[in-house]
Protein: Nucleotidase
Organism: Bacillus kandeliae
Amino acid sequence: MKQKRFGIDIDGTVTCPTSLVPFINQDFSMNITLKDIKKYDLSEALNIPADRFRDWFDEREPIIYENSPIAPGAKEVLDSWKQQFELFFISARRNHLQHVTEKWFHEHDLQYDHIELIGSHDKIKAAKKYQVDIFFEDKHDNAVSIHEELHIPVMLFNTPYNQDPVPNGVIRVDNWAQAKQWVQNWCNYSVTL
């Protein structure tokens, strides 16, 4: 029997946070790197009018998701967890992208118990519905609100766009190996209680 249920964001967490950069550079004639993105709102971070950026993203979104590289170490860690934990991927992607998303998981040979595309950054309702025990996220305010509302630990994957302070219970990690180590310690601690 699997002992814990993990809620896991997809974009910028399982996929590499640089996924959009080549598309932005090509389509907006820019030459940026991830280090140049200091805010989660890309239209604001890159000084692109919000409606123009939204239209561009709506058009390019499926292609970006199809071609997103997996984050370094994500497959190895998720593979090591698949027998022991339930893996529920909860994403702000809209549900018309379900096929694209499942295809990407299949192509990367990533196992999952469930994929929920909620079409919004408010993941609290889905995390509550699926009774996740821990969450993995790259968006700062999501990490904070999930932790504060559900009183569960949240792993926040460090990026240049999520550097605001975090409360205890939101744990910053630089990579999947650090997340795995924290989870192992957390599970060992839970067993001893």
